[in-house]
Specification:
The protein has 14 helices and no strands. By secondary structure, the chain is mainly alpha-helical. The chain has one domain. Helix 4 packs antiparallel against helix 6, helix 7 packs antiparallel against helix 11 and helix 13 crosses helix 14.
């Protein structure tokens, strides 16, 4: 196993928290209007927390697996099956527990979705149908379905990228992926009638350029040793936050901001992944942040049952959407739920599934983890 990049683990929680606060700050939920308006304007761009997940995922998977390819070719069906099983063993147990909790809450509230919606969501297929994408559980977990799509492609794409010998070629590909992603967002913004929002925002192929950008950024650091200075990460982060707090509310879209957001993320990931950490970023890889990063996926999933419970209370007037105490309380409840999901489901199920897979693979030698 390679050394864990603790700074990137801590960053995962910051991204999950950004999405969580964004989900709270909705007009029909608990709008955080008591915050300074520039701060709330930045929070309203919390969909970009998912962009962090996608870029970070490509970056981390490249770090973990690029040395497996002693030759830049597909490693065979056994490797592919093992890779997919290992990834699904990590994400599916918590995902399905969250789905079952939401199903139970929907049954209790008398708002059960159609069986087709449940089955599509449970199999990561709902997001491929724009007309029903982002409904019910998939309203927030569509990003997990996107990740599964990326996993399916990763073992094919990585060896192709490893055939590239010059970093300048990787930089050109990176620029093209960012340009394509931004152009797709701009097109949807300019022609919303002809381009379905879900076809751009939640459709897996539309978000693949962000994952690809993470892979390219990972290769530039881990293979070609391109290291960005810490001051550049600070400057770009400040510029991006300022830009989003001003222009975010004016440009209703997510991908349209990728021209700045993705390069900023890549520089930040580069700095956080370097062996010698700048004092400016050491806190991101601290022990508390590392643990929060470990439970970040459970934190992300736990918010959906919470929202299923919270929304009816607000609509019925039992909770005031403008009560400042609701957001901190919701955070604490979600954090407690994340700890329980991580400790009781995510960790235990992952170990158990890998154990049984290893037992099975001893009888089928081509299946090795």
């Amino acid at each position: 196993m390679k050394k864990e990049l603790r700074g990137l683990t801590g960053l995962r929680f910051l991204a999950a928290f950004y999405v969580f606060v964004f989900h709270l700050d909705m007009p029909l939920r608990t709008p955080l209007t008591y915050l300074p308006w520039r701060v709330e304007a930045f929070i309203q761009q919390g969909r970009l927390g998912v962009t962090v997940f996608f870029v970070l995922s490509g970056f981390l998977l490249t770090y973990r697996y690029y040395t497996d390819f002693d030759s830049p070719t597909f490693k065979g069906i056994g490797y592919y099956a093992a890779f997919l099983f290992k990834r699904l063993a990590r994400i599916y147990p918590v995902f399905i527990v969250g789905l079952l909790l939401c199903l139970g809450i929907s049954f209790w509230q008398g708002t059960l979705p159609h069986l087709v919606i449940v089955l599509l969501s449970a199999t990561f297929l709902q997001t491929y149908f724009p007309s029903v994408a982002m409904q019910w559980y998939d309203m927030g977990t569509w990003s997990v379905a996107n990740e599964v799509f990326f996993y399916l492609l990763f073992p094919f794409v990585l060896p192709l990228l490893l055939r590239i010998r010059r970093p300048s070629t990787l930089i050109w590909l990176l620029a093209l992926s960012i340009l394509f992603s931004t152009a797709l967002g701009a097109l949807q913004l300019l022609r919303p009638q002809s381009l379905h929002y879900q076809l751009v925002y939640s459709f897996p192929p539309s978000r693949f350029p962000e994952f690809l950008a993470g892979m390219l950024g990972g290769l530039l650091l881990f293979r070609f040793r391109w290291q960005a200075p810490a001051w550049l990460a600070v400057a770009l982060s400040f510029l991006t936050v300022s830009y989003l707090s001003v222009f975010g509310p004016l440009l209703s879209g997510t991908l349209v901001h990728n021209w700045l957001v993705v390069p900023t993320l890549l520089v930040l990931l580069n700095v956080l992944a370097q062996p010698k950490q700048s004092p400016l970023f050491k806190w991101v890889g601290s022990r508390p942040m590392e643990y929060l990063g470990r439970i970040s996926y459970s934190f992300y999933i736990a918010q959906h049952p919470l929202v299923f419970l919270l929304d009816p209370l607000i609509r019925s007037g039992q909770l005031s959407p403008h009560d400042w105490r609701v957001a901190p309380l919701a955070f604490l409840v979600n954090l407690a739920g994340a700890v329980l999901l991580h400790e009781l489901v995510e960790k235990k199920a992952h170990v158990l599934l890998l154990h049984y897979y290893r037992l099975y693979s001893t009888k089928n030698q081509y299946l090795t983890l």
